[in-house]
From TrEMBL:
Pfam families: SBP_bac_1
PANTHER family: PROTEIN YNJB (PTHR42779)
Protein name: Predicted protein
Organism whose genome encodes this protein: Physcomitrium patens (Spreading-leaved earth moss)
Amino acid sequence: MFEEKNPDIKVKAVYVPSGTGAQPTYDRILAAKQTGKGSGDIDLFEDGLGVVTKGQKDDLWDNLSTDHIPNLNNVDQNTLNDVSNLAIPYRSSAVVLAYNSETVKDVPKTLDDVYEWIRSHPERFAYNDPSTGGAGSSFVTTSIYKFLPEDAIHNTDPSIESQWDQGFSLLKDLGKYMYGKGIYPKKNQGTLDLLTSGEVDMIPAWSDMVLDQLDKGQLPETTKITQITPGFNGGPTYLMVPKLSEKKDAVYKFLDFVLSPEAQNVVVDKMHGFPGIKLTNMSQE
C-alpha cells in the first residue's frame, strides 16, 4: 500500500521474535550511538512501553511532532504525552482469557474468579514466562498490583517494589496449581500451543493473536475468549524513530501513512487489533 504510493521509498521489514528477541536490536542502536555510527542502519523500531522508557533514558528516540507527521493529529494527545512524544502508539491489543469452551463451563468473570478456577483445576492453566511475552507479563503484573491502589501501576518510583511482596506470594502459591506444577512455556505462542493440544484449558493471551489464529484455523473452533473485570494489563505497541537515523524524512512519511484511516483499517481488519488513532478519525464504512 505505502510503496505503491511512494515508489521512491522502499520499506524493509525485519522480523524480531517476541520477548527477549528485540534486545539485540536495541543494543545495536545504542552501540551505534555510543560509537558515532548513527543508528546502526535501523530507522524505525517497534516495541512496548518498557523499551520506550529505556530508550528515553539512553537518549535514543527522536521527538515526534505534527510538523513532520501531520497525522499525529489523529492520535489521542494523552497517549502521546504518556511517552513524551517519543513514540507512536500505532495499534493496541488486550490480554484476555482464552479457553476451551468444551471443558470450561463456569467462565471466570473477575480476577479472583480466575485464581479460584486455577486452584480448582490443577495443571489446567498456564501462563508464559513473563520475560518472553506480554501475555504472561500481564498476568504477573496484574497479580502483583492487585493489592495496591489503582494508580500504583503508573508509579515509576523504585520504592514501589517494596509493596510487591503480597503479589509475589500469591504467584508463588498459584505455582503448584499451574501446568506441570510450575512450568512456564516460552513466548505467547507457547501457551496457545498448549491450549490447541488440549494440555491446558485456559490461558491469558493477546486478543489479536487469538482472533488471527482462529481466522486461520490454527486454533480449535471451541476456543473462546473473555475479558475479566477489571481487565488484565495491556496496551499499545509503539513505533520509535532512532534520533540518529539518516532517513528521517522517509520514516516520517511512512509514519504519516501508518496513522492514516486507510492503514488503521488494516490494523483492525487484518491484524485484529485496536486502532492507534481516535475512532472519530477512522473510516466510517
